[in-house]
Each structure stands twice: as C-alpha cells, then as structure tokens.
Amino acid sequence: MSVIILEEVDGPANPQNAVSLSDPVRKGLLETIGQTPLVRIGSLSDATGCEILAKAEFLNPGGSPKDRVAAQIVTEAMSRGDLSRGGTVAEGTSGSTGISLAMVAQAVGCHSYVSLPDDAAEEKKQLLHALGAHVESVRPVSITHKDHFVNKARRRATEGSTNSQAEPVSILLRAATEGCIFANQFENMANFRAHYLGTAPELWQQTKGRLDAFIAAAGTGGTIAGVSRYLKEKDSSIRIYLVDPPGSSLHNKVARGVLYTRQEAEGHRLRNPDDTVMEGIGLNRLTNNFKEARIDASFQATDLEAVEMARFVLRNDGLFLGSSSAMNLVGAVKAAWELGKGHTVVTVLCDSGARHLSKFWNPQVLQKRGIMPDKVSDDLSFIAK
Ligand code: PMP
C-alpha cells in the first residue's frame, strides 16, 4: 500500500517524447504523445511581417499538451515505484489534465479519480466518465477552502489509505489496497519536465534554433516555465513573453518586476471565473512550476481580442481553436509588433474549439457579455497596440 503526494524528484526523467521518428510504428498510446507539428500561421505572418509559428498541441491524442504532462507524471511515479498497475491517479481539475490523466491511466493499467467543480461544463464531465475516470463534483469554493476541488483530490489520495471512515467513494477502496498518487499538476515539477524535455527541444529542432521570441499564457505555468528555461539555456537572447487574461494577476507582477519575490509568491487574491471566457489560463498565485519561468515581459489581452482572433484564424487559416490558443496568438501579434518586422515568434495552440462550445464559442454567452463580433475582422485592428 502506498500513498504518495508527489514532490519534485531528483535525477533525469524519462520523457515520453523521446520517440524515434525513424521507427514508423509507435509502441502504444504513450508514444503517440508529443512530436506535434509546428505550423506557420499564414494570415498573421503576412499581416505582421514576422514569421508567426505555433506548435499544434491540440493534435496530441487527448487533444492538448496535458497529455505530455499526464504521461510524465505517471511514468515518473511508476519508475520510482510509487504507482503500479491497478493503482490510481487522483487530480483536482476542471481542465484538460483530467482528460489526459484518465486516458494515460487506462494505457498503463491504472485508474483515475478526478474532482471538479459542479459548474464545470456537462460535456467535460461526460467525457471524463466515458474515459473511465471516477468523477466527483464538488461545490465551487476558493482554493484556500478545504473542499476546493484540488484540496479534495489531495485528500482523497491520502484518505484512501489512512481513513477507513472516508466517504464511500468506490475509488477510495481501490486506493486503499492498490495505492494512489496525487498528480498535483500545479506543484509537481514533472509538469515542468514534460515541457523542458519534450515541447521545448522539439520546437528548438523544428525552428533549427532560429527563433526570436516565445510567448504563452500560464495556467499551471508548466509550459512557459519548461520552454523558457530550455530556450534561455540554448540562447539567452530569445525573448520570453507572457500573455495574461482578464482576472489574472501575473501581468502586474511581471510589470512591477516582483515576480520572483517570496512575498509575491505567497500572496494571492481569488480569481472569479466570471472575469473571463478564457478557460485553463490565468493565475493569482505563483505555483512551483510557474516560479521556474524566465520571463522578459508581458502583455495583457482581453476576451474580445481572443474572440476576434479565433474567428480571424478560422476564416483565414482554417484553424478552429480554443480560448487559450486564441489568446496566445493575440500575444504573438503583440510580440511581433514590439519586435518589428522580420522576426520569428513562436507560440502554442493548446486545444481545439470543440472543447469550448459551451463558453468561448457559444454565441449566447458572448452576446450576454457584449463581446460577440458582428463579422470576421478584415485585419488585425481588433488588437490593441
Ligand atoms: N490552455 C489550456 C486549455 C489549458 O487547460 C491550460 C492548462 N490549465 C493552459 C492553456 C496553460 O498551460 P500551463 O498549465 O502549462 O500553464
């Protein structure tokens, strides 16, 4: 019986992304994760005079870069002996990580438990159920509350073995006998490593090291931290930008240059999900993963800019994107304008619009908020300089 709350581990990780491209046969699901294409965004490149390139992470088998993170968390835990077949991976998430963990858990003979707020989109819950996750909906409360969905998952992983009086959730019984880990994507540095060992070297290779800037929004901070650390080690002149959505406090922290102080790391105010139609991005606390990021500057972007961008690249490039991908592209244009013509700016397309039908792509929701565009913009004038 083992119950592990994952902390940072020493030693080299075992990246799932180390797939040999010379072997046309991938040995199972885990080897289909990563090695995503880098795509030139023609419309934005033409309009800015820069090369705007984006890593198409929505082409991972579970539809997002969280596949890399889930695979890294699970394989590290298995190689350390903290998780074995029949065991359970527990996480509190309303985003893509639950989907990726449920899928990866199935691939390695494990189970998954996901707690999420009960206002999460119905299709998300259905998808998790279909993937075989044990899903528990909890009332939305602040992260400081013991019943916040993240704290609930942490406790489930622990109670599974230590408290026989625990609430009768079937997964607890299995956790008690087979072992359970708390994936802990915000603080577990396997998240950082998934990007440092996978996403970043891939995009370094795909650009042949010829890039001037990388930009991304942060949810856990894993992507921007892993990629920025790797790129800065390769070439410290590469500019790293953060793009921050409404309701998130990272931009102000970067602008005030206080990102890395202990005081800032510990203070946070609550985020209000009604602040934005963006999903999966924005932070009001500094996570272990985010703290590893090396950021030169940041931009704020609005929901309306992202909504207009999503329509613009669908119309011009045929890309049907989710909210964070659209916001990353808004940021890429702002970075291109700041750098001037002739530069190469790289970003990430996290997931597809299909995951965002109930909010970001829902005309009624956008109309209610007054951010439903009348038509697709002819140019990039919807982006504030
Ligand atoms: N986009 C989406 C859709 C996400 O779910 C997340 C993660 N919550 C991100 C972007 C941000 O990635 P990261 O967690 O690596 O900062």
From TrEMBL:
Which chemical reaction does it catalyze? O-acetyl-L-serine + hydrogen sulfide = L-cysteine + acetate
Which Gene Ontology cellular component terms are annotated?
Answer: mitochondrial outer membrane
Task: Give every Tryptophan synthase beta chain-like PALP domain span.
Answer: 31-351
Q: Give the chief site where it resides.
A: mitochondrion
Q: What are the alphabetically sorted keywords of the record?
A: Membrane, Mitochondrion, Mitochondrion outer membrane, Pyridoxal phosphate, Transferase, Transmembrane, Transmembrane helix
Gene Ontology terms, MF aspect: cysteine synthase activity
Q: Under which EC number(s) is this enzyme classified?
A: 2.5.1.47
Q: How does it sit in the membrane?
A: Single-pass membrane protein
**Which processes are annotated in GO (biological process)?**
cysteine biosynthetic process from serine
List, separated by semicolons, the cofactors it needs. pyridoxal 5'-phosphate
Membership in a protein family? Belongs to the cysteine synthase/cystathionine beta-synthase family.
What is the protein name for this chain? cysteine synthase
* Naturally occurring in which organism (per UniProt): Cymbomonas tetramitiformis
